[in-house]
Amino acid sequence: KTERNFMIRALLTFHASTCSRFVWRRRQRNYLYFYSGSGCWSYLGRQSRGQLVSLQKNGCLYTDTVQHEVLHALGFHHEQVRSDRDSYVSILYQNIKPGQTHNFMKRKTNNLGTPYDFDSVMHYGKYAFSKNREPTILAKRNPSLNFGTARTMSKNDIARVNKLYQC
Ligand SMILES: [Zn+2]
Predict the structure, then answer these.
(1) 62 with 21, same domain?
(2) Fewer CB within 10 A of the terminal residue: the chain, N end or C end?
């Protein structure tokens, strides 16, 4: 299947740049179960037993999307909810769709010594969850900066994986 081969290639990008390794499941208790569900999503960090990662056939099969969801599974939050985000971005709550503000809640993240990174594959776009085509996130240093368009993991994304998993 083309989809399956694409997935494997996307997972292999982790082998090329990080120390995480994906193996076919044999009898492991905890494992990732990739399937084509509704939308692209993944749980944060390790869950018990078969952990679902949904990558819908039409819409999620892009290298950056697969990397993004796998990074959630490896324990990483979105970049714009980092503990230190207020020094780098403003969240424009007045432009966020009702019921979506939880997506912008700041988290007590362990940033592992890496800088805030607009090029992270975990960064939302400037207009994420906008109800009125106005930005929901602005870069403080440069409000005209566009971001959240990474096509692949940044060097900070890679550094974090290797730091978290100590390799
Ligand atoms: Zn996400």
Answers:
(1) yes
(2) N
Domain end, chosen from 20, 48, 73, is at: 73
Number of structural domains found in the chain: 2
The pLDDT tens digits of the residues spanning 112-157 come to 999 999 999 999 999 999 999 999 999 999 999 999 999 999 999 9
Q: Please state the pTM of the whole predicted model.
A: 0.95
> Residue 130 phi/psi, 5° resolution?
-75, 140
**Centre of ligand 1 from the C-alpha of residue 67, in Å:** 10
> Does 72 show up as a binding residue in the annotation?
yes
78 in a known ligand binding site: yes
Which of 47, 73, 99 is the last residue before a domain boundary? 73
Name the catalytic one among 3, 69, 79, 134.
69
Q: What are the φ/ψ torsions at residue 35 (nearest 5 degrees)?
A: -150, 165
Q: Is 69 a catalytic residue?
A: yes
What's the whole-number average pLDDT of the chain?
96
Whether residue 85 is found in the same domain as residue 153: yes
**Domain with 64 in it:** 2-73
Rounded to whole angstroms, the Cα distance separating 130 from 166 reads: 38
Q: Backbone phi, then psi, for 89, in 5-degree steps?
A: -135, 155
Q: What is the mean predicted confidence (pLDDT) over 28-48?
A: 93
